[in-house]
Inverse folding.
């Protein structure tokens, strides 16, 4: 288990307004998420708090946490909260609570939520390396935007905003931690209203160890890609899902880390499975009789499978990684559930008979043009905007150009592999080789070689 690092979140309130930022879409950590300014605590932060005479006292707040908040205010916002306290421009500080990163994450923080009640809106110089946009908004409107599925956030920030939206004068916020019973459940979070991300361990390609199973739907609740790695993990997944209810299973494509045990879940709960015709044929070919006793619905482009916050959720055909792969999105494009179109952890392999590099790139272009507000991959967290899709496409085009140049120099496939993937662990070379072969196929189809 990793060490838990202290951090501070700065919650600025003025009358009934709260100050928020939306993190830059290119950041590696929580891109596009609504957040508060702040960061990790440094050893020297306690000394910072001692510099200021605070007339109303903050003895209940650890000096290093307060000092860290003051320093982060200077670095990220260009304001000195310590000086503002001395001037009486801060009329109260509340330690709203502490959120500890769940134990299934490799990097863990104990984030202290400090609310500073201000007498005015200060002039700020917000660090745009971190904040894409920043804004003041009435607390009740923030609550409404979260509940309308317009804001993406980690659960403690989401809960803080919703609770303050209901009562801006709260001095404590209860239950900020993500909790689940690890003995009987799998981890789950709700980063967007009505989008439950359930994370069982699965037989997936490392460095990923989990495949997201998303539970969506206002009335008809659809579970996407349940695929636990064992019968023990299956029981935990089933227990988790039953807490919220389930009416249907939806499979994005035929790779094993997206459908294992889905037949058992379907039969135990007496619910249908939705999938593309191509996915059905490929699973049946590899595992004859897998769907025996299962009620099946074949899905295609444009089908409505459920509603999310009143919005129809439609099927999108997204071939390339897998010929039969399907994606889901509401009509307002507040999110796009992309399956293995790209990865938040690791990389997408385009290989075997189901992979097609040209279709894959065309699919990326199509989804980028749809411009969804949030992209949810099958592995990793949801990401704000299409930045990472664009970077994935740019990387594929760059790799294609490199392969083309080496091919023109009469490099063999193995020589191309060693030239381009020298720093990749040898265990991953077979997957890299598949990508190279698919790039060469695309170059032939395009008439370049």
């Amino acid at each position: 288990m990793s060490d838990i690092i202290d951090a501070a979140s700065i919650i600025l309130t003025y009358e009934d307004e709260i100050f928020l930022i939306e993190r830059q879409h290119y950041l590696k950590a929580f891109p596009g998420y609504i957040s508060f300014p702040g960061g990790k605590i440094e050893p020297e932060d306690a000394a910072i708090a001692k510099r200021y005479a605070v007339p109303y006292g903050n003895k209940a707040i650890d000096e290093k946490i307060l000092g860290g908040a003051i320093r982060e205010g200077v670095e990220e916002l260009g304001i000195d909260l310590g000086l503002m306290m001395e001037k009486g421009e801060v009329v109260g500080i509340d330690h709203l609570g502490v959120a500890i990163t769940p134990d299934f994450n490799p990097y863990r923080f104990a984030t202290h939520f400090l609310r500073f009640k201000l007498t005015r809106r200060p002039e700020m110089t917000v660090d745009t390396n971190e904040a894409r946009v920043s804004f003041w908004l009435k607390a009740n409107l923030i609550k409404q935007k979260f509940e309308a599925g317009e804001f993406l956030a980690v659960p403690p920030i989401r809960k803080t905003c919703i609770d303050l939206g209901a009562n801006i004068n709260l001095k404590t916020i209860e239950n900020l931690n993500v909790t689940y019973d690890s003995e009987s459940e799998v981890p789950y979070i709700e980063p967007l209203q009505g989008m439950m991300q359930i994370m069982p361990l699965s037989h997936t390609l490392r460095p990923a160890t989990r495949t997201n199973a998303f539970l969506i739907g206002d009335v008809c609740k659809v579970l996407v890609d349940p695929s636990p790695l064992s019968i023990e993990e299956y029981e935990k997944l089933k227990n988790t899902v039953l807490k919220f209810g389930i009416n249907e299973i939806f499979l994005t494509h035929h790779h094993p880390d997206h459908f294992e045990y889905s037949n058992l879940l379907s039969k135990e709960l007496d619910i249908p499975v939705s999938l593309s015709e191509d996915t059905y044929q490929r699973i049946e070919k590899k595992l004859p009789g897998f769907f025996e006793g299962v009620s099946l619905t074949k899905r295609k482009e444009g089908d409505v499978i459920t509603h999310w916050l009143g919005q129809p959720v439609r099927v999108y055909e997204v071939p390339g990684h897998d010929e039969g792969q399907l994606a889901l999105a509401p009509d307002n494009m507040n999110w796009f559930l992309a399956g293995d179109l790209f990865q938040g952890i690791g990389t997408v392999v385009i290989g075997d008979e189901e992979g097609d590099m040209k279709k894959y790139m065309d699919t990326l272009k199509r989804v980028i043009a749809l411009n969804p507000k949030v992209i949810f991959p099958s592995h990793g967290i949801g990401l704000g905007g299409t930045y990472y899709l664009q970077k994935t496409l740019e990387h594929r085009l760059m790799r294609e150009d490199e392969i083309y140049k080496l091919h023109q120099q009469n490099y063999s496939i193995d020589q191309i592999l060693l030239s381009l993937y020298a720093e990749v662990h040898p265990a991953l070379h077979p997957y890299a080789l598949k990508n190279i072969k698919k790039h060469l196929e695309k170059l032939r189809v395009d008439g370049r070689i």
